[in-house]
Design goal:
52% of the residues lie in helices and 13% in strands. It has helices at 7-15, 20-34, 58-66, 74-80, 96-107, 137-164, 179-189, 194-201, 205-219, 224-233, and strands at residues 38-44, 50-54, 86-87, 113-120, 126-133. Residues 170-235 form the HTH luxR-type domain.
Length: 239
């Protein structure tokens, strides 16, 4: 699993998508670059409607919807209670229903390992970005350690672009920050230095300062740390 890749190029590819098909094509490239089995973006709204993109087999996607598995899926239930990325092995799979669901998933080509990133909006919006694979626990732990930061960035970009194509799902208050301001604040929240943020976004540090100050002003924050905390609390960025 995993390989060296140009992070800035993938983020640029995501930024330049204009249709869900193009977004799906980038997801496939991310999957292939990471050498994992599947990538999934999954939205479940308050009414139970499901939306997203998956490289899972069509038979499993259809079965998942038909059986309303989102109501019993330990990944959905577990991630809904958390704000941080979740390794599937940390979830509770001990119940009879969960075990039956897991076996059905494995029988349909879903890998035995997963890493899901919850994405929340300010009005209760909830989505997941998931990487799925078949391998040993040791290999999966090593993969997560190596790529967790990049996966969070992919989740952020993927969610933002997907919502651009589904305007009725976009939280109104999330428009307070521009896409570039959100990108900058997300990277800073992840612990990137200003120089690293500027490099990742292919901008100068002067331009980065403009984005940061603009975001700070919009959020009514006293400083950058306060701005990051405010953006996190409002669900404008995910880390």
């Amino acid at each position: 699993m995993g390989t060296q890749f140009d992070l800035s190029q993938i983020l640029e590819d995501l930024e330049n998508t204009s249709t869900l098909d193009e977004l799906g094509a980038v997801a496939v490239r991310i999957r292939d670059k990471l050498k994992v089995d599947h990538i999934v973006y999954h939205w479940v709204d308050g009414a139970g409607d499901q939306y997203g993109y998956t490289t899972y087999p069509d038979a499993w996607a259809d079965r998942y919807r038909e059986r309303n598995y989102h109501r019993i899926d330990p990944v959905i239930l577990g991630c809904f209670q958390r704000f941080h990325p979740v390794n599937w092995k940390s979830l509770n799979w001990s119940g009879k229903v969960a075990k039956a669901f897991l076996q059905d998933a494995l029988d349909h080509g879903v890998g035995n390992q997963g890493y899901s990133i919850p994405i929340r909006g300010p009005n209760g919006q909830f989505a997941l970005f998931t990487v799925n694979h078949s391998c040993s626990d040791e290999a999966w732990e090593a993969f997560i350690v190596t790529y967790s930061r990049e996966l969070i960035l992919f989740a952020h970009y993927f969610n933002r672009k997907a919502l651009d194509f589904e305007q009725d799902r976009r939280p109104e208050s999330a428009r307070g920050l521009s896409p570039r301001e959100i990108d900058a604040m997300t990277l800073l929240a992840l612990g990137y230095s200003r120089a690293q943020v500027a490099h990742s976004l292919s901008i100068s540090e002067h331009t980065l300062r403009v984005y940061i100050e603009s975001a700070r002003s919009k959020l009514g924050a006293l400083n950058t740390t306060h701005a990051i905390a405010t953006a996190l609390s409002r669900g404008l960025i995910v880390v």
